[in-house]
Design brief:
It is built from eight helices and eleven strands. It has a single domain, classed as Metal-dependent hydrolases (TIM Barrel, Alpha-Beta Barrel), CATH 3.20.20.140. The protein is of the alpha/beta class. The structure holds zinc ion (2 copies). One zinc ion binds next to loops.
């Protein structure tokens, strides 16, 4: 069965779809289990104000969609917490505000609130050293279930990486993060976004998946990070195939914040 654990609705500051839109997109793509995980970021983009404003409506909409699509699509709900290590108190508050199925932890900014999308990165080696060091701190908070899009910066670094999306050069920085995920029972997300930005491949390359597996990792979630109906579930089928080719016969989903394994 196809699964997609990472999507956004109007309850995210940059989401442009309803909860029902997400379920319709899942049905269309043959995805049987789908999650909405809304932004809650400590940053300057309004990521911390937006979700609480829409929270009550979102709870009602997700409850309604769960019932309406029951038997066709299993809808799960959660939050994507950005930089939880920077504002742990607020992150914990939002995490405890509802009975979520899943919490995704993501690094959208590096220290000092610098948004990776708008940073001027000249020295990619220095940048990735900072990025993965901070990622390790974030994993150490253990407040989330899935590490979101490990390859996030690659989306905006086409020129600086000379068109090569591989993260292999930073393997020595990535390995401690993979180990920390495994030690803390946190899943690794296989995000399909990069393949619709500029790279034909995904940021979770076969070497990275194989390394994770070799270290003892078993929990990989798939996520299209859809913010609009036409990109929700994008690339999920292809990502499932890549995952299978790398020796995983199951994807992971989280229900009531507990991992469940789904045969691909
Ligand atoms: Zn994200
Ligand atoms: Zn997201």
């Amino acid at each position: 069965m196809l699964t997609d654990m990472h999507n956004h609705t109007y309850a995210s500051f940059d989401g442009k779809q309803s909860v029902a839109d997400v379920c319709v997109a899942a049905e269309k793509a043959g995805v049987g289990i789908i999650a909405v995980a809304e932004h809650f970021d400590c940053d300057a983009r309004g990521g911390m104000e937006h979700f609480p404003k829409h929270f009550e409506q979102w709870l009602r909409d997700t409850e309604k969609a769960k019932r309406e699509y029951n038997g066709r699509v299993q809808l799960l709900r959660g939050v994507e917490v950005g930089q939880p290590h920077v504002f742990l108190k607020e992150a914990r508050q939002i995490i405890n505000a509802a009975d979520y199925d899943v919490i995704i932890g993501s690094l959208h900014d590096v220290s000092g609130g610098r948004d990776i999308y708008f940073m001027n990165i000249d020295d990619v080696d220095a940048f990735f050293e900072e990025y993965f060091t901070e990622m390790l701190q974030m994993i150490g908070t253990r407040v989330f279930d899935i590490l979101g899009h490990i390859d996030y910066p690659v989306r905006v670094l086409k020129e600086k990486l000379n068109g090569d999306p591989s993260l292999k050069r930073w393997e020595s920085l990535i390995t401690p993060c993979l180990k920390a995920l495994i030690d803390n029972g946190i899943a690794l997300e296989f995000s399909t976004v990069l393949s619709r930005c500029w790279a034909e491949t995904f940021g979770i390359e076969p070497w990275l998946l194989e390394k994770y597996k070799k270290l003892g990792g078993e929990m990989v979630t798939l996520g299209s990070d859809g913010h609009v109906p036409e990109l929700t579930c994008f690339g999920i089928e292809k990502a499932s195939r890549v995952l299978k080719d790398c020796g995983f016969d199951k994807t992971t989903v989280f229900v009531d914040r507990k991992p469940q394994f789904i045969l691909i």
